Amino acid sequence: MKKSKRQSQYVCQGCGNSSPRWLGKCPACGEWNSYVEERVSSEKRGHGRMLRNSTSIAITQIESAKEERIGTGIGELDRVLGGGFVPGSLVLVGGDPGIGKSTLALDMVNNVSLSKMSVLYVTGEESPEQVKMRAERMGVGSDGLFVFAETSVENILDEIVKLSPKLAVIDSIQTIYTEDFPSAPGSVGQIRESAAKIMQYAKANGTAIFLIGHVTKEGTIAGPKVLEHLVDTVLYFEGGREHPYRILRAIKNRFGSTNEIGVFEMHESGLEEVKSPSEIFLSERPANASGSVVVPSLEGTRPILVEIQALVSPCNFGVPRRTTIGLDYNRVSLLAAVLEKRAGLRISGQDIFMNVAGGVRIEEPAIDLGISTSLASSLLNRPVESDVVVFGEIGLAGEVRGVSQVELRLKEAEKLGFRKCVLPRINLERLKRPDTDISLIGVGSIEKAIEVLF
């Protein structure tokens, strides 16, 4: 019998890039000392048949199936998923250690099991007794919730076949291995092969499976390109452990909108939903403080009011400092240059520190006017009125450009008691009959905005 040939390759554990020899620095992601030797076989291994149909069919002959969704019993999680999880879907949940991934997963499977559905919680890091201790602390427990401590994909799938659960959670994918691949658990090769087998079973049998994933020191899930391409939905936990609030964001969703967020607060008994995030983020806003501006940001389909804070101070060294938390560093530097060039504010030689209160990260262009306003407020040491919100995108010429979903932003601001809004002039002109009691001020340039506010 002809023996199979085996050879080695070196794979980056950060991005999955492979090389025939060891490299000190990965040319793809720039990570140092991330290449690990993995044994590969020249044998062709079949992964089995993923779908029931083995022949091609015209799309016009395919019967459309009604999309079925099952609620998790957690409103914020259902919002991020698009209304609940879809049977047969594969969902990846990532985040820093201790941020609440396992807590959320255990709460979810408990809620689903209470609706007379069998669910399976596979733990590769804890013993069943440790999971029980956490469950007692959270006050969860159901006869339909089964716990299985195992790290072999083959044994896990055998247990799922025997139990036939509606939902399964695997915590975590980095601890799982398949006997068909000669590599250590947690390596990119093992993650790829294990996730592929799990995906094939989920698609063929209609069991929804949640994978818990660890993140690297850069904040990305190990083997991100492999996992994110395989799964249907990718959810990321944001917010450091020093903050009580956790943001769950969907960055990929084949069954719903992306960039939808859910807000949770960490308590001793676990994660609790935050029904009104805007009130929470603004609850400790200082009164009459320069550099503080409220912006209605749109996260997916949800408007959230956030406080943007800026501190502009004289530079004590030759090179000014730029520090941002929750905002894009390059965007802040660009807007500071626009203020210098178009509005005549001498800000380039100043130290700039910016923060989004509450630990949330905001990236949409509509917050540009809020960033610029907070910088000008801190530089001039003039506070913005406490009942004012601002939003709008700013171009390099200093023009204030229009944004989307103006009505949703205004309704959220009015609900929390704000009485004045500075917004792009083009958005104001397109509002035929503003259904709001907020005083609207349209501006076409950053110079005009500063003139109105200060």
Notes on the structure:
- The chain is of the alpha/beta class.
- The protein folds into 3 domains: 6-41; 70-275, P-loop containing nucleotide triphosphate hydrolases (Rossmann fold, 3-Layer(aba) Sandwich); 280-453, Ribosomal Protein S5, domain 2 (2-Layer Sandwich).
- The chain is 28% helix and 26% strand.
- The chain has 12 helices and 21 strands.
- The protein has helices spanning 75-81, 101-114, 128-138, 153-163, 188-205, 224-230, 277-282, 329-342, 368-380, 406-415, 425-430, 446-453; strands at 6-12, 18-19, 35-41, 90-94, 119-123, 145-149, 167-171, 208-213, 233-238, 245-253, 261-267, 270-273, 292-299, 302-314, 322-325, 350-356, 388-390, 393-394, 400-401, 420-424, 439-443.
- It has a 9-stranded mixed sheet with strand order 6-5-7-8-4-9-10-11-12, sandwiched between helices.
- A hairpin with a 5-residue loop joins strand 18 (393-394) and strand 19.
- Helix 8 (329-342) crosses helix 9 and helix 9 (368-380) packs across helix 12 (446-453).
- The longest helix is centred in the middle third of the chain and has 18 residues, at 188-205.
- The chain starts with 5 loop residues before the first strand and ends with a helix.
- The relative contact order is 0.10.
- Mean pLDDT is 87; it is low at 46-51.
